[in-house]
Amino acid sequence: DKESPYPSPISDKSKWSISSNSEKRTEGNDGPIKNLIDNDPKTIWHSWENEDDDTKGGHDDRENHQGDYNFTINFGEKLTFKAISFTQKPTDVEGVVRFFKLYVGDSLEDVTQKVKEGKVTLDSYFSANKNRICYLNLTEEVSCQYIIITTKGDGRYATGAQFDIYTDYIPYVN
């Protein structure tokens, strides 16, 4: 078995917490936003689908169920990283996250204000998948406690299997 050329992500997420403005009720492996940081690529975050979600633990805080999806991660401490990855869900193409904006801050108030002012750290897209994992280097090392990612998803839904950060840059590999 060939060793991966990619560095390992920060795997200890015990201090991390995550929230989203839209998540589906738990249904099999699909559902809540916490699935995005559980180190299990088989569990999926899926945005709100319909009114059934409202009565069974899901929610959609977007006005009229329209607008960008977002998720907020509190790392529980200041972390320094140079790259991120986003693992798409393993099946279907529904809700694929491509275009996104990454905001960083030292407090929830700080990062929320940056979203309001459009002060992005990275405005990019998750392109070609390596086993459905999309890797992205930041233009410079970042230190923060909070991040917010905003996306339109596929215009109807947003989904994902895993979000990770890396202390090293990701090498370019063909």
Write up what this structure looks like.
The chain is mainly beta and 174 residues long. It is 9% helix and 40% strand. The longest helix has 10 residues, at 108-117.
Rg result: 15 Å
Number of helices: 2
Topology pattern, helix = H, strand = E? EEEEHEEEHEEEE
Mean pLDDT: 91
Task: Furnish the topology, listing elements before pairings.
Layout: E1 17-20, E2 22-23, E3 30-31, E4 44-46, H1 51-55, E5 59-60, E6 69-87, E7 99-105, H2 108-117, E8 122-125, E9 133-151, E10 159-160, E11 162-166
Parallel strand pairs: 3-4
Antiparallel strand pairs: 1-6, 2-5, 4-10, 6-9, 6-11, 7-8, 7-9
Summary keywords:
six-stranded antiparallel β-sheet; globular; 174 residues; mainly beta; 2 helices
